[in-house]
Amino acid sequence: MAITLRQQDADFEQRFSAFLTTKREVSADVEAVVRDIIARVRAEGDKALVDYTLKFDKADLGALGIAVSKDDIAKAYQTADPATIEALKFARDRIRSHHQRQKPKDDRYTDAAGVELGSRWTAIEAVGLYVPGGTASYPSSVLMNAVPAKVAGVERIVIVVPATRGVINPLVLVAADLAGVSEIYRVGGAQAVAALAHGTETIMPVAKIVGPGNAYVAAAKRQVFGTVGIDMIAGPSEVLVVADADNDPDWIAADLLAQAEHDVSAQSILITDNAEFGKAVEQAVERQLKVLPRAETAAASWRDFGAVILVPALEASLPLVDRIAAEHVELAFDDAESFLGRMRNAGAVFIGRHTPEVIGDYVGGSNHVLPTARSARFSSGLSVLDFVKRTSILKLGPEQLKLLAPAAIALAKAEGLDAHARSVAIRLNM
Amino acid sequence: MAITLRQQDADFEQRFSAFLTTKREVSADVEAVVRDIIARVRAEGDKALVDYTLKFDKADLGALGIAVSKDDIAKAYQTADPATIEALKFARDRIRSHHQRQKPKDDRYTDAAGVELGSRWTAIEAVGLYVPGGTASYPSSVLMNAVPAKVAGVERIVIVVPATRGVINPLVLVAADLAGVSEIYRVGGAQAVAALAHGTETIMPVAKIVGPGNAYVAAAKRQVFGTVGIDMIAGPSEVLVVADADNDPDWIAADLLAQAEHDVSAQSILITDNAEFGKAVEQAVERQLKVLPRAETAAASWRDFGAVILVPALEASLPLVDRIAAEHVELAFDDAESFLGRMRNAGAVFIGRHTPEVIGDYVGGSNHVLPTARSARFSSGLSVLDFVKRTSILKLGPEQLKLLAPAAIALAKAEGLDAHARSVAIRLNM
To answer: How far apart are the C-alpha atoms of B337 and B343, rounded to whole Å?
Structure first.
């Protein structure tokens, strides 16, 4: 059973605040182990990768090779279910179309003073994508990370993925190939992150590393940050469904459980203005749990972190929605557009009764890599912008320099930076 | 004397690689101290701020007050030099005009399948800006951080600045006021970052913290990251000047020294195709050093990290320029536009002989907060984008859901996520 909070109760603010700050994940302290792994990969290169892979992934890279070959990819296509390959292509095309609209435009202009200014966007030259092994090895995540990089114009897109006991999910290889990934290596863990950041004999270094991973991978990304760029560190996933009583409780329960089945630390929250409806959804959750293959995970998540929040009117939930700042927000009621217009914080919003969040996980076209754990207050989902960077441009002639010089010199002197003042003044014989 | 590297020498690649990886800053290990400070501010709030400020800044907030008052700001206007105030206004207006062009546009559209997709940008609700004390207390940096936040639409812009021995640079207060900052507090160091992230009785928490600071401030920002967003961690500053022999050696030397006077770990690099010109610039540097107030700092920077790189033709420097990925790049030769068109990595580019980098520090209009230490390979300077975040939007009707459902269900099943498949199927009675 999830907890129930009533906005009109006297202790609501206190209980809601406590709910918001509940930690859903304990991060293991793996800093020191990771530091050693990175140092050894820097010192020994491929040899360290082979050793660590034998130890952690029980795979012999001496026999398999560090790099995945074209043959391996061809075999993956033969192994994979053809209908699933078609579904991946369908998803790839939709993701590509949507992300093409995100490409930022260069801007170059001359202002009233005759000064030329500009912003020029260029793709990052090489990007590494970490793909987890085992059950968390999601081909959809390969598309969600690699397609925006490709759209951005990244030349080298490199995947690292652990081959646990020698095996890589063939759908991961197919998704990588469909997305236009250039290189794939059979390494995982902190050692893979170290190889991407610092390079080895086989793996050329990249400029930025993205993609989800376990505590070791997250710690390694933090440690190499600066040498390379990294994406946000993903936390446990969450959904917030705001629904009125006109919804089918079974539909809403299914959406809450789709989130809960991800992980015991996932979080599903229902906000409704109708206590009866809230009860009906809770009952539907219990019923559906009985037939779910991943019921154990989903039940634990719902029990430990799930919540039903009762509000006097959906309108009253607006400040709560912004404070929760959920990764996924479903607005399942009629006037959702007006509500959305007044919302501030959410990773992604799914509007209406026929837009289950799961569509966004796979084939909506928008990205499923989204800010978790309230970070939608200050950050955005993955996009083409994560694979480009901006150079600013300034161009003055002698007339413009003369015009801007007095203020520049005044400010440089006020800040005690005489060489700054001089580099302007010297050009004007001042 | 800076080092000289010749691209045509046999050992160039080796020496250039070593030069690129030279560490210019040793970061002190202050993690544990900072952890304690943050814990105490969380536990004791304002009281901890008062205690730490007495200890570290020798200022009595019991008497002065934590918050800077309107009276304090009015006094700052009276104290400051009127010409400098005018220069700040001039800079503020130019920065504002340029950054207004950076506001991202919402995108909402219906694709061929009838699916509605969108990206909606909203301002971060509250942002904290750290301003260092003492000699590094630059009013220009207040404008460069606060103006883009204001343009983005951030409602609460909060400055923290240490009042060393009770004193805050009046120009910092004037710049904050001109930029539209909402609140200013007399606290600095890790304790100020902790207060911004977690809040105290006097200081309401913010959602993101930006601005430069010392090792304690940088460590505190890293530690509160996740609770709040942070900007990049700024490293030592650098300039790369690419110049032919048609330049006045004194002008170029002045530009190299403007960078070098910032800090002993700043870096100034000249690339030229003319060895005689390189020598002339080096001689000009030595001459100018004799009259500079900050000669000691500038000389140390030039001696320890400065470089003159000789290339057979400026064209040949293109790959070197991209590998250096400098914060500031001056292109002081005739065909700079074509060169720029083929460059990939730079924080900001200054074109032609009349655009000294210093113009960009103050009054060009572009931002002076730029990626340092080769991070222009993967990141961009500060902009309006740092103060907004994007929510993605998806909206399907029953027809669109029917169309997308088969691929979504196939992928969910392939990933072993049955509750995902079910949340789509249940809406179609599948």
So the answer is: 10
